[in-house]
Amino acid sequence: MSWHKDVYEIQLRRELSKQQGGEESIAAHHAKGRLTIRERIDGLVEEGSFQEHGEGAGFAEKDSDGAIKSFSPANYVIGFGRINGRLAAVGGEDFTLKGGSPNAAGLRKSVYAEELASEFKVPFIRLLEGGGGSVGGSGGKGPRAIVVESPVFSNPRFQIIAQVMNEVPVVSGAMGPVAGFPAGRLVASHFSVMVRGTSQVMVAGPRLVERALPGLNLTKEELGGAHIHSRSGIVDNVADSEEEAFEQIRRFLSYMPQNIWQIPERTHCDDDPTRADEELISIVPHDSRIPFDMTDLIRHVMDLESFFEIAPLYGQGQIVGLARLNGAVVGVIANDCRYYAGAMTAKGSQKAKKMMEICDTFHIPIVNFMDEPGFYIGPEAEKEAAIRYGMSAVAAAVQSTVPWATIAVHKSFGVATAAHFAPNTFKLDWPSHEMGALPIEGGVQVAFHREIAAAPDPDAKRRELEQQLAKGRSPFPMMENFAVHGLIDPRQTRTKLCEWIEWIQPLLEDLKGPVKWGMRP
Hints:
CATH superfamily of the largest domain: 2-enoyl-CoA Hydratase, Chain A, domain 1
Shape: elongated
Number of strands: 18
CATH topology of the largest domain: 2-enoyl-CoA Hydratase, Chain A, domain 1
Radius of gyration: 27 Å
CATH architecture of the largest domain: Alpha-Beta Complex
Largest sheet: 8 strands, mixed
Mean pLDDT: 89
CATH class of the largest domain: Alpha Beta
């Protein structure tokens, strides 16, 4: 007697699970301009590399002869695939079944997803679409129902979600409507992206919002579209298509190590480390009131085409991203004087702090381009608690363990300057650097207000005082007193940083493993 019948049923269940919610449900999903979870996984990972875990999981209804009459597959798909040639765990909800709200088998696979990434110490990518639990629950009916409630001795459900972020890179994509628990998972990531127009992110959907807040009748797009969350900080980046979202995910992971027990892979670089772009000598105007493009400056210094900006529309006074210097990965933090003069707002401080923490977690050196006018001021700054979040960024900087290089490009005023220096910072100054407790313009008005008011021509007196004080803010005394490692020609910045990146390579090996931080404001 053979096992052919049983083996046939195993294969049949696997084939039936690939049918997901059925042809009509898949067609309706495609009509909304969205891919299915299996199509998404195939579009993200290298062709033929996906190895599903729990293939064929789900519940079958059988006839009196024991043959399968109907099959309801698990509506969460999880497994291994290869991205950039490296193993990763990839998973997500199947929206064609119950709108992604987990059925019994889907719930168990969903719970397993972070465990898989943690156990094998590989990056984890979530392709999210669904609303989490439903009023009907996920326990199902009959003898195959699972117990939804966890036993008293089990670990908290959210423990592994927090744990995995401290072990491996975690990336999430909002590929359609995402609400409830999936929205919580989305933000528990090192990098997140959503698709413009077809994805929305919400704590709760429009019906629940209207029920809780009568009269507030909003669409999903109005409630949580990309125009909202690209600026709220819920997601980092926005893509115009699912395919572009996959490309951003692959690119982010290309800068990451597999886990915290490794350092990022260094790639071959064809860009000359001694390249000295002429544009850098004049990129900062002599008139400090004229803004310049810090992103353009960064691209002149980093390896060509290597700068990957993160959260460009959130906390816009700060620029963060990942790049390469002579093939080695670095984190980039900079001020953008085109927004709030580059001041550290509450959002900008949180953005900079998160980048510091990502770099510390994965042992990525930080290059900081400083043009700091101070913490943002005014009534909005007070309402948003700018000083609290600003001091949290300062704490993250001074507790950082990775090597830093800080280039003082333009200005550095006030307490916020402390957010630009770690304990082991390589300090370079440009001749355009101006420093002090306060900007001259505002500082003169505060310190000499009586003298200015008493002058026959107050405006002329104010300008005279500003010019006198500006002479004392030259960066040359910093060089004379060895307060910086070098006062440099801006065109030498790339060369100096590429030399620094070689010095610090042995230091990175000693940083492997978990990091620890103290309490922060």
